[in-house]
Amino acid sequence: MMDWTDRHCRYLHRLLSRHALLYTEMVTAPALVRGGAVHLLAYNPQEHPVALQLGGSDPTELAQAARMGAGAGYDEINLNVGCPSDRVQSGTFGAVLMLQPGLVADCVAAMRDAVDVDVTVKCRIGVDDQQAEDTLPAFLDRIAQAGCRRFTIHARKAWLQGLSPKENRDIPPLDYDLVLRMKQQFPELHLSVNGGITSLDQAQGFLDAGLDGVMIGRAAYHDPAAILAAADPLIFGTGTARDAADIVHEMIPYIAAHLQNGGKLHQVTRHMLGLFSGRPGARAWRRMLSEGTHRPGAGPDLVLAALAQVSPSPPAPAACAG
Ligand SMILES: Cc1cc2nc3c(=O)[nH]c(=O)nc-3n(C[C@H](O)[C@H](O)[C@H](O)COP(=O)(O)O)c2cc1C
C-alpha cells in the first residue's frame, strides 16, 4: 500500500504469519526501467513469499521491470489494474486499464515471456459506468487467454472522476456476489477477493464459499495481530497464533541492525503502532513510540520500555471437562 507499507512493514508482517503472501506497494515500471530506482526492489530474504506489484502500461517496459523483479528474487510479479489516482491515470496505468483489456493482455503476455515466476493481476470489478456484470468476465477471459491464472479482485468499481483515491476505497459499493459468480464462471482461475474485509472469520467465509484467496489491506495494517498473527493456524491450518509481545522481541535485532546501517527508528516502529490494538496498555504503547522515536539516541530500549506498558496477553482458557 503506497505510502503505508514498505520492506520494514513486510518484515514485521512475516514474523506474524509464515504463510500469508505479502505484496510490495506498487512500484512503477518507468521508475525501475527509466528512473533506475532499483533501491525500490530491496527486501529482506525473510519476507518470502513476497510478490512485487508493478504499475505500467507499456508491455516492453513492464517486461523489463518484471525481469528486474524476478532477478531480485520476487516470487510473483503482479500488475496493478486497480489504482484510481489521477497521477496514475495520467500515466495510463492502474484502474483506467480496466477500459483496455487488450492492452492489459499484451502487458501480461510480455511479462510472462520475460519471467518464469507467476504473473498475476489485481483489478477492480470495473470503472465508471461499465456494466461490470458483462465487462468483468470479458476482462478476465481476455487476460486469462494471455496466460494469467491468478487474479485478485477488489470488489468495487473505481470511479475515475470526482473521487479521491481514499474515497475510491470506500464509496463505490462492494459487490462480493459478482466476484463469487466469477469463480463459478471461471472455476479454473485462482480468484482472490479484496475490499472491506476486516476479520479472519469473514475471510474464511469467502474461502468456504469457493474463492481461492482473500487479500486484506487496511485491517491487516491497522490491526496486524488480529489479522496476521492468527492466520497461520486459522486459515493455513498450521502453527500457532503468534503473540504480539514475542514479535516485538523478535523485531529488536532487526531494529538494531537498521539503526546501525544509518536508518531511523520510526521508519520501523511506525508499522508497529497497531500491534496491541484493543489490549490494555495499547494507548501508552502507541504514545511512547509516536512521541519518543524521533528523539536523538532513541533505539531498542525505547521499544522495550513501551512494551512494558502493555498487559501480558490473557492465558488461553482452560479446557472444560464437564
Ligand atoms: C494507503 C493505501 C495505499 C494503497 N496502495 C496500493 C497499491 O500500491 N497497490 C494496490 O494494489 N492497492 C493499493 N491500495 C489498495 C489496497 O490494496 C486495497 O485494494 C484496498 O484498500 C481495499 O482493501 P481493504 O479494504 O482490505 O483495505 C492502497 C490502499 C491504501 C489504504
Automatic annotation (TrEMBL):
- Pfam family membership, one: Dus
Q: Where is the DUS-like FMN-binding domain?
A: 1-300
The catalytic activity of this protein is classed by the Enzyme Commission as 1.3.1.91
What the entry lists under InterPro entries is as follows: Aldolase_TIM, DUS-like_FMN-bd, DUS_fam, DusA, tRNA_hU_synthase_CS
Active site: residue positions: C83
Task: Site Interacts with tRNA: give positions.
Answer: N80, K166, R169, R283, R286
| Keywords of this entry | Flavoprotein, FMN, NADP, Nucleotide-binding, Oxidoreductase, RNA-binding, tRNA processing, tRNA-binding
Give an example GO molecular function: tRNA-dihydrouridine20a synthase activity
Residue numbers binding FMN: Q53, K122, H154, N194, G195, G196, G217, R218
Q: Which cofactors is this protein said to need?
A: FMN
Q: Which reaction does it catalyse?
A: 5,6-dihydrouridine(20a) in tRNA + NADP(+) = uridine(20a) in tRNA + NADPH + H(+); 5,6-dihydrouridine(20) in tRNA + NAD(+) = uridine(20) in tRNA + NADH + H(+); 5,6-dihydrouridine(20a) in tRNA + NAD(+) = uridine(20a) in tRNA + NADH + H(+); 5,6-dihydrouridine(20) in tRNA + NADP(+) = uridine(20) in tRNA + NADPH + H(+)
Q: Which HAMAP family match?
A: DusA_subfam
- What is the documented function of this protein? Catalyzes the synthesis of 5,6-dihydrouridine (D), a modified base found in the D-loop of most tRNAs, via the reduction of the C5-C6 double bond in target uridines. Specifically modifies U20 and U20a in tRNAs.
The Swiss-Prot or TrEMBL record describes its family as follows:
Belongs to the dus family. Belongs to the Dus family. DusA subfamily.
Q: What is this protein called?
A: tRNA-dihydrouridine(20/20a) synthase
Q: Which organism is it from?
A: Sedimentitalea nanhaiensis
